[in-house]
Design brief:
By secondary structure, the protein is of the alpha/beta class. The chain is built from 27 helices and 40 strands. It has a seven-stranded mixed β-sheet. Strands 10, 11, 12, 13, 14, 15 and 16 form a seven-stranded antiparallel β-sheet that branches.
């Protein structure tokens, strides 16, 4: 019932659907998890009659209380429910008075009496972050990692009077990745999928379909909360087990070992692939052999002698934390004398410390930030306040953990201001905005050869927020000269830099690190994506950014798995021959990405390109350059060598054309319109016959048969059209609905559209945000006018929403005939185009669906599997969805047929786009 995680990342999406059967709910618990469960349940139409949570702490209400109070939901903050083991009568009576039909406990740190648990007519359900009956108890996530489980997951169960022993209602599983931590496992799966699971469980109860599956005792386990005293590392086990122990205790309570006579806590463990890098030996009490302090961290060995782990950070008994790589140099740096100006800054920082540590009478040089009561939120506050006071000083949260005493902190700040702390520190002229409850820092210059620089011409242009038409910032407008410089840097990095000589496993490690940094900054990236493209924030978090992280992790794993083959050839006697193939990188690659998924399209192409060992020059869409530039900044932090990644924002006619024509570029990957794709292909052929892959326009057909599951077809059909505001390359451009269900399908679609909330994409309850930019909105409105003039029936929408920004109503056309413009041309917007077909006319509708020059994606809804397979075999499209839509995955190849282009993104096939095959024959 009790579980914790250090950091919460909201990266989920629950479709806005109002159900017919709803319940009166009492939510008992706390935390951001509880807040999101509360919000999603209300969104589904359930009535929350009371929220029971913990009292305010230090004047701050729990996130669940904040959300409930904002909505006017009754909130009760009981410090306890029992006294001396007995329920407190007035507390129980207050609870009973709200009249709940079901108790929902998404996260609860209090002991709730059984008289409350059993009171509602449906009882109580609880979320637990393990696959029960495994890991009952409070530290389930920790023990999942400590035991090295291959699978993690969560259970939603009916509460009983045991400890996590009630009947199971619902369970979900996910694989545990080799270097997962409590945070990554929680953020990737247990948090987002757990919220969806809670919503699903409540609805099953509302519909009378919720199972009660007794928990088996076979395989059951209970592990208590780990304490610091019993978290010491045992060295008589393999490195894998030690790695599991360290990551299972990170960050609380922290696994430790005795080094230099004191207990040193180990943080940031990962398994080390490849040879141990050079370094200095470090004796560790009880270890089978000394550790090695390397430039990457502390390498530790298990008893098996076959594998190693790498620890990133060390914390000493006095609370001081250092990078493990700095163990032997820690404390050797002499204190610097402060100038008069620096003394003033130190006093300003002392005042900031005093404001945060209000319980400390006086901030002395020896005052320790954390021993004085500071928590993780105070770290964020300290970093942000200092950034405001010391303009241009870039601090990270980890810097506070590395210098916990005031004196050490001031020394770190002074060295950082003087530029003494970092080698070739990246200089970024950020545009900073306070938005979405965070400070967003956005690069805005070209990124060439590892540096942010102005365009050679000095020209800039405005990138505009489509929500309100305001200018986000001015961005460098690249010229042909900037492209040439970027290509030269990429060529130098490939031919003479470390990237071209790097071991593939080391290359993969850097890409994994880049993915980790993207995940660490995912809320900032999603906010920038929302500002720049109008993406709904929750979708940007889950898809735009979330899938980008997954893509880099997927291709990072491919780096050391790119293989050739040996080929038995006809031997030329009397000699013998060995023939084999090698898969080699191409060299400098150019990538041109569109504006609908700015970061995700960058990831889909550049992750495969980099994994194959190439260097790249990338042009983001002119209207959405900001996440690409933020990505460039993170690539430097990840350790990607200079020149490997170059970003040149600007116009397609200038920058994109130069890339097509450049003689030193060996491959160009493009996503965009078919007419531009044709021009690019022509230029690539004329210049140097460079390799090309094109993902172009679409008019994807979606066929809905009368024997489908209609509720699902309506829901998925809407997603097929309106997902990401319709700015989706595989959007269903035309729906073919069988005659007998046509009218009911249209009625339900319109009913659901009326429930959609159109508004600020940063509002978590928004379903539909603004179109990407003004010109596109005007094109969509013109598209609707053409449809009306041709005789199609406008059932809903077709207009601009009367508010600032580029908002368009979700639109539905029916009675669309095959010859009409809207039946043939892609809208790339929230416009549903519906045509009828006769009942049973499978071949006829197939002929109409294929009567297009596009072939990117397609879909079919039917419960007849034979019919589904028959249709899928005959649909002329690179992707066919059956009883689903928009279901892409990083491991599944993606690309089109006909004038939708050629070549693949994602999956192993994407690597082939960025490799060449060399055949080698040896005579012996």
């Amino acid at each position: 019932m009790l579980w914790t995680a250090r950091q919460v990342i909201r990266n989920f999406s629950t479709a806005p659907v109002c159900f017919q059967n709803t319940l009166k709910l009492a939510l008992i618990g706390q935390s951001l998890f509880g807040q999101e469960v509360y919000s999603q349940l209300r969104k589904q139409g359930h009535r929350v009659v009371g929220v029971f949570t913990v009292p305010d702490k230090d004047g701050k209400a729990d996130p669940l209380a904040v959300a409930a109070e904002r909505d006017g939901t009754p909130v009760f903050k009981f410090p306890r429910w029992r006294m001396k083991g007995q329920p407190i009568p007035e507390v129980v009576d207050t609870y009973k008075a709200v009249g709940a039909e079901l108790n929902v406990l998404p996260f609860c740190s209090q002991f709730i009496p059984m008289s409350v648990i059993d009171y509602p007519r449906h009882g109580s359900i609880i979320y637990h972050p393990s696959i029960l009956p495994l890991h009952r108890g409070a530290s389930a996530i920790n023990w999942t990692l400590i035991h090295g489980d291959r699978k993690a997951g969560f259970s939603i169960f009916w509460a009983d009077d045991g400890l996590d022993t009630g009947p199971i209602l619902l369970q979900r599983e996910c694989p545990v990745e080799p270097n997962d931590t409590v945070d990554t496992l929680y953020n990737r799966f247990l948090f987002p999928e757990g919220i969806k699971g809670m919503v699903e469980a409540v609805q099953l109860i509302a519909e009378g379909k919720a199972p009660r599956i007794p928990q088996p005792e076979e395989g059951a386990s209970y592990e208590g909360i780990q304490k610091k005293s019993n978290a010491q590392v045992s060295w008589n086990q393999p490195a894998q087990a030690i790695h599991n122990w360290v990551r299972g205790h990170d960050k609380v309570p922290g696994a430790w070992a005795v080094i230099g006579g004191q207990a040193v806590t180990l943080y940031g463990s990962s398994l080390l692939a490849g040879p141990v890098p050079p370094g200095e030996p470090l004796d560790i009490e009880g270890a089978p052999q000394p550790g090695i302090v390397t430039s990457n961290g502390l390498v530790l060995f298990g008893s098996d002698g076959k594998s190693q782990l790498l620890v990133k950070n060390l914390q000493f008994e006095d609370g001081r934390m250092i990078p493990a790589s700095k163990y032997f140099s820690a404390g050797e740096t002499a204190s610097v004398e402060l100038t008069e100006e620096e003394e003033k800054i130190a006093e300003e920082i002392r005042a900031i410390w005093k404001g945060i540590l209000s319980n400390v009478p006086k901030i002395e040089d020896s005052t320790d930030f954390f021993k004085s009561g500071a928590a993780s939120m105070d770290v964020v506050r300290l970093v942000e306040e200092i950034k405001q006071k010391c303009e241009g000083l870039q601090l990270e949260n980890e810097d506070v953990y590395m210098a916990t005493s005031f004196q050490d902190f001031i020394q770190m700040v002074v060295r950082r201001r003087r530029g003494e702390d970092r080698e070739e520190e990246l200089v970024v002229d950020h545009v900073t905005k306070e938005v979405n409850n965070m400070t967003v820092k956005m690069p805005h210059q070209c990124f060439i050869n590892g540096k942010f620089v102005d365009a050679e011409s000095g020209k800039t242009y405005d990138t505009v927020n489509p929500t309100d038409g305001s200018v986000v910032c001015k961005v460098s407008y690249s010229s042909v000269a900037d492209v040439d410089q970027a290509v030269a840097a990429a060529k130098e990095a490939f031919e003479r830099g470390p990237w071209g000589k790097m071991n593939p496993r080391d290359r993969g490690r850097l890409l994994y690190r880049l993915a980790d940094l993207m995940e660490e900054h995912q809320e900032e990236l999603a906010t920038i994506e929302t500002l720049d493209s109008g993406a709904v924030y929750t979708l940007a978090l889950k898809t735009h950014v979330g899938m980008s992280v997954q893509t880099f992790r997927y291709f990072a794993g491919w780096c050391d798995k790119i293989q050739g083959t040996t080929i038995p050839i006809n031997q030329a006697r009397p000699n013998n021959n060995l023939t084999f193939t090698k898969r080699e990188p191409l060299g400098v690659c150019a990538i041109v990405i569109p504006w609908n998924y700015p970061l995700m399209m960058l990831a889909w192409k550049s992750a495969a390109c980099l994994a194959a060992g190439n260097t790249l020059v990338l042009k983001p869409a002119q209207v959405t350059p900001l996440t690409a530039l933020k990505f460039a900044e993170l690539s430097v932090k990840a350790g990607i060598p200079k020149g490997v990644i170059n970003i040149v924002p600007g116009s397609g006619g200038l920058v994109g054309q130069r890339m097509s024509e450049h003689p030193d570029i060996r491959k160009l990957g493009f996503t965009g319109s078919t007419p531009i794709g044709k021009q690019i292909m022509k230029s690539c052929a004329v210049s140097n016959l460079k390799k090309v892959s094109l993902e172009l326009g679409g008019k994807s057909p979606l066929i809905i048969f009368s024997d489908c599951e209609l509720d699902k077809a309506v829901r998925m059909g809407m997603g097929a059209v309106f997902f990401n505001k319709g700015e989706n390359c595989i959007a269903a451009g035309r729906l073919f609905v069988e005659d007998s269900v046509h009218d009911e399908f249209v009625r339900r679609v319109v009913e659901e559209i009326r429930k959609m909330k159109i508004g600020d994409p940063l509002d978590r309850s928004t379903d539909h945000g603004p179109q990407n930019h003004r010109a596109h909105l005007e094109k969509l409105l013109e598209y609707c006018e053409i449809g009306k003039k041709e005789g199609a029936t406008l059932v809903y929408g077709g207009r601009q929403v009367p508010r600032p920004g580029c908002f368009m109503e979700p639109t539905v056309f029916t009675d669309v005939e095959d010859h009409m413009y809207i039946a043939k041309e892609e809208s790339f917007g929230p416009i549903m185009v519906i045509s009828k077909f006769r009942d049973g006319d499978v071949d006829g509708v197939l002929q109409r669906a294929n009567n297009t020059e596009f072939g990117l994606a397609s879909g079919v809804f039917t419960q007849d599997i034979s019919k589904a397979m028959y249709v899928s075999e005959r649909l002329e499209a690179g992707t066919v969805f059956i009883n689903t839509y928009n279901k892409t995955d990083v491991a599944a190849p993606f690309g089109g047929f006909k004038q939708s282009g050629f070549g693949k993104d994602l999956g192993e096939e994407a690597l082939h786009e960025y490799l060449r095959t060399k055949a080698v024959t040896v005579e012996y």
